[in-house]
Amino acid sequence: MKKTTRLILLSLVLILCLAPFEGLHAEQSVIKMYNDEAAPDGSRFKNTGEGIVAVRLNVKGGKFVGLVVPSWYAAPMSTALILYKWDTDYGTTISGSPIFSDMIEDSVSQGWVDPGEADFTVDFNRAFAEGEYLLVYYRLSGNPLHIPTHAAHPDSIAYFDQEVYENVSYRVSCIVDPAAELNEEPNNNIDSQEVIIAAYGNGPSADGLSYISVGNYASVAHKFTVKNGKFTGIVFNELFLEAGYGEIELKVYKWKDDYNTTTSQTPIYHNIIEAESGGPGQYENFYVRFDRAYALGDYLIEISCYDGLNLWAHATKEGVTSYLDGEVYEEGTLKIDIIENLFAELDERPVYTPEPTETPEPTPTVESTPTQTAAETEKPGETDKKGEKDSGNTGIIIGVAVVAVIAVAAIVYIIIRNSKGRE
User: Fold this and answer.
1) What is the end-to-end Cα distance of the chain in Å, rounded?
2) What is the 3 state secondary structure string of 232-256?
3) What is the mean pLDDT of residues 208-216?
4) Measured between alpha carbons, how far is 334 from 301 in angstroms, rounded to an integer?
């Protein structure tokens, strides 16, 4: 056999021997799901403070085992990543249960962390089959995460607040592994499914106001739509109380037709909230949790306070309307967040502050008496007669005792006098 032929045969044997090991140790691949070109609308990003950012991914080339999410934020930042198997449309998909959830966070970095500087690699610890998925970003706490926008990509569809974001792709990459063992058991790692949704516009109000002084109005109000999880509370974003303390009357209504019709209903939540902001000139996010879980839909909250409560004014936002004494605040929106819980059990019982009641007239107390057996129990009407009889006997006993004391005193007096006379 020629030397060349022997070398070819040896090479084929080596290839066949190594083939199984190639399969076992195949490297994971990172697949970009965005176009490098800029977004045609001139945008640079969408952030989790503005609304719900989501992307539909068509995963190919191997089992879906992870993600690479870009860094672009100022710490502190905590963002939830929720992954669903795509089902028919956006609404149907998020009404189902997620197959993976986890958070990315940073509480120590100083200043801005830019894309590529410290991107997040997320391992599902699972291997999902090729196919279509929906990745949803939720701001949990702190500052928002910015998701860079690019030109459209054939295997990804961008969404913002449940609507398709036309001709745009978000910067995200999928990690696939052709050799991974399929494991589609859900893996949810977020203890709390509570998410914070901004219900105000991005930027300053058109009239240049920094804040609205609530005490200048009988009430201010805020209308918004709950689109994702159950409605479980609100956040007064960077609450500003001039004296550091205030009592805030809060009413929550389900929206019906218009402002007047809505507020003529009985609120589903009505409470007096005692709030603190740490003192004058200090600002804190103040959370109001209802201990209830109201359904998706439109809501109006109405706020009254005369203790120096100021709510920050921001730009207008589609789907959100603020009111001052029932009139639309055309120039902006109040800086209020919605608290939603993705998987809370629906609980729409109303909550009301107990109304004070008139103090009732004091009623006579009855002294307790030893327990009686059935045989000893008095018949109706006998108690009063017995009381009268006992009262009479007591008077006789006292009279006899007084007479006896006088008689003894007289006898003693006579004995002493007689003894003196003998002397």
Assistant:
1) 169
2) EEEEEEEEEECCCEEEEEEEEEECC
3) 93
4) 11
Query: Of 11-20, 233-242, 271-280, which gets the smallest average pLDDT?
Result: 11-20
- Residue 397: burial class (beta carbons within 10 Å; 0-12, 13-18, 19+): exposed
CB 44 within 8 A of CB 182: no
Q: Is the peptide bond before 186 cis (omega within 30 degrees of 0)?
A: no
Quick check: 135 and 83 in contact, CB under 8 A?
Answer: yes
| Dihedral angle sign, alpha carbons of residues 190, 193, 196, 197 | positive
Find the Cα–Cα–Cα–Cα dihedral 142, 143, 145, 149, rounded to 10°: 160
Q: Are 336 and 200 in contact (CB under 8 A)?
A: yes
Per-residue burial over 181-203, b if 16 or more Cβ lie within 10 Å, else e, is eeeeeebeebeebbbbbbbbbee
What percentage of the chain exceeds 70 in pLDDT? Answer: 76
Whole-angstrom Cα distance, residue 196 to residue 395? Answer: 78
pTM confidence score: 0.57
Burial class (CB within 10 angstroms; exposed 0-12, middle 13-18, buried 19+) of 212:
buried
**Hey, what are 351's tokens?**
């909550």
Number of residues written out for the chain: 423
